[in-house]
Design brief:
Elements lengths: L5 E5 L11 H10 L3 E8 L5 E3 L11 H4 L26 H4 L6 H6 L10 H7 L7 H10 L4 E5 L11 H12 L6 E5 L2 H10 L4 E6 L12 H4 L5 E5 L5 H9 L3 E5 L4 H10 L3 E4 L10
Parallel strand pairs: 1-2, 1-9, 2-4, 4-5, 5-6, 6-7, 7-8, 8-9
Antiparallel strand pairs: 2-3
Amino acid sequence: MPGCVEIIAHRGARSLAPENTLAAARLAHKMGTHRWETDAVLTRDGHLVLFHDETLTRCTNAAQVFGYDSKAPEKTVWPGPGAIDRLDSHPLIDLQLLDAGGWFEQKDPYATVPEIAPHILAAFKEEPIPTLYDGLVLTKELDWRINIELKDHGNEPEPNFHPARVLRELARSGIAPARVTLSSFNHDWLRFLRQHAPGYEIQALVGDRDEEPLNFNDPVFTSAEFEVLNINALLVTISDIRALKAAGKRINLFTVNTPHDYMRLVNAGVDGLFTDFPQRFISPV
């Protein structure tokens, strides 16, 4: 593996452990990845937790704990006012009741469960939804690095301003700014972060919808405002990557999972790759 290409564990080593848990982070660190990426979202009462989806159904046992059937036709769904399966409809104390790891063995999302020792799978059943503070403290203890995606689901609880809460937790954790990258599809949030905490690296996410082509005339590509772009790998060509590199951009791509794509993109000059399978691209330590 070329040393200049950063391997970033997407939601931790999520092909071998439940995503966005501390177990997935620890495993990614053990493998020797350069950093892990995780998603920070707000609870109803303004706490930050590490979770990707708007709803709890896919990655927790919320249906059982909160007593609703996610498959029932009468289930309230967003944007209805009582969507009980939405993470942001619950305070942190509710979310701490949930098992965020047991689903992994049941669903085997990457067909990797047969490769994992039974005692490790059993331990996943006790994994909680971590807070951002938990993730920062672990990263600090491991002498490692973290990429925090500020997840914008379009309905943050008032009066909590997501980026400001993130900065508060960063300060509370005592983690060194050099160990932290802040990223988001919400570029206004990134501008706020740059203004109020210039010591942290900022990376602009681009291409959240696989079916929408990128507009390379957009200022995010043509201006110098964002030096580092994290781009959907499905939406760029090799010539696009080389043109952006020639314009002085640093380019990270998500999500790259096959050795063929890895070699193709490394040869094109990318700076980093987000992957669900870090074990394919980096040797364990």
